[in-house]
Amino acid sequence: MKSICVYCGSSAGASAVYTEAAQSLAKQFVDNDIALVYGGGNVGLMGVIADEVLRLGGKATGVIPKALMDKEVGHTGLTQLHIVANMHERKAMMADLSDGFIAMPGGVGTLEELFEVFTWAQLGFHTKPIGVLNVDGFYNSLIAFLEHTVASRFLKAEHLAMLFNEADPQKLVQRFRQYQPVLVDKWLKKQDL
């Protein structure tokens, strides 16, 4: 586990608990010699986690579309900053540079990124760990909804189990470090219904 991609808000959120969690996750990365890969912004939780990783002596790589860089939201003090043409290139490069994916609290962009890599794992396109840092119960409703999709026979329980759900950054990073890929057939079979 050399690098983990973190998806998170371009806002800091309504509570200081989100900023504190971003700083704690940054510390876990540095303590475990894991580099940060993220969206390259200098705002919100994105800026918080990158700044903290760098402050603690770690490595932070950002990937940002030119249009966002032009709006002056790009972080210019990173270990590496890749400026790409669009969001599709951004997400592909972030995935290529990462050994796993963590979603912190964020908005629809964060959710979209999380669900894309979750879908890729479900389809067997990658075997990297995926998790949510469930700060202050932020993802409780989402997890409940995903459990509903399992009960409704739209998602296998084995696929939902691929999504780690932890409130503690240390526990989440530990689970990533101990991760062993599990391949599960995507499609529900008639006999499973």
UniProtKB/TrEMBL annotation:
<dbReference type="InterPro" id="IPR031100">
    <property type="entry name" value="LOG_fam"/>
</dbReference>
<protein>
    <recommendedName>
        <fullName>Cytokinin riboside 5'-monophosphate phosphoribohydrolase</fullName>
        <ecNumber>3.2.2.n1</ecNumber>
    </recommendedName>
</protein>
<dbReference type="GO" id="GO:0005829">
    <property type="term" value="C:cytosol"/>
</dbReference>
<dbReference type="InterPro" id="IPR005269">
    <property type="entry name" value="LOG"/>
</dbReference>
<dbReference type="GO" id="GO:0008714">
    <property type="term" value="F:AMP nucleosidase activity"/>
</dbReference>
<dbReference type="Pfam" id="PF03641">
    <property type="entry name" value="Lysine_decarbox"/>
</dbReference>
<dbReference type="GO" id="GO:0009691">
    <property type="term" value="P:cytokinin biosynthetic process"/>
</dbReference>
<keyword id="KW-0203">Cytokinin biosynthesis</keyword>
<comment type="similarity">
    <text>Belongs to the LOG family.</text>
</comment>
<keyword id="KW-0378">Hydrolase</keyword>
